[in-house]
Amino acid sequence: MKEIDNEKHEKWMRLAIEEAQKAQQLAEVPIGAIVVLNDEIIGRGYNLRETTQDATTHAEMIAIREACQNVGSWRLEESQLYVTLEPCPMCSGAMILSRVKEVYFGAYDPKGGTAGTLMNLLTDERFNHQAHVVGGVLETECGQLLTDFFRELRLRKKKLKKG
User: Fold this and answer.
1) Whole-prediction pTM value?
2) Which keywords belong to this entry (predicted)?
3) Binding site members for Zn(2+)
4) Which residues form the domain of 136?
5) Number of domains making up the chain
6) How far apart are alpha carbons 87 and 81 in whole angstroms?
7) Is residue 66 one of the residues assigned to a domain?
8) Options 60, 66, 86, 102, the catalytic residue
9) Helix/strand/coil for 150
10) Radius of gyration of the chain (CA)
11) pLDDT tens, 9-66?
12) Is residue 14 part of a domain?
């Protein structure tokens, strides 16, 4: 098993959290992602599903798309992806297809996580590529963003019903 440099991973996850906060400013579910190559950010993204009305505009998909454009290749073989919430099947698939080397996520997703919770697509040896996966990086902070967002959303909906 690979030695984990918590300080480095926390630094990158904090930058993914900054991306999530951009989504939150737009009333989007606060999920953020960054792609890192050679200690440099090559892709950033945050959830835009409500804004775009496009189911594929998850933080990871946007970050992977930008990273591929920045390196001029669909292969991200030596890259690391940091995301504030455990990836869904679509995003895990994109990580496999783009050959992301390592995936670090914050909060676990009991309803849709496919990096260990419901299944682990990223390490499934039936695929032609596997990624090293570490979950729970700044898990409390990442989870709190989501908890606060959904609590606020429920309060707004409740006020609308009463109003």
Assistant:
1) 0.94
2) Hydrolase, Metal-binding, tRNA processing, Zinc
3) 58, 88, 91
4) 6-161
5) 1
6) 11
7) yes
8) 60
9) helix
10) 16
11) 999 999 999 999 999 999 999 999 999 999 999 999 999 999 999 999 999 999 999 9
12) yes
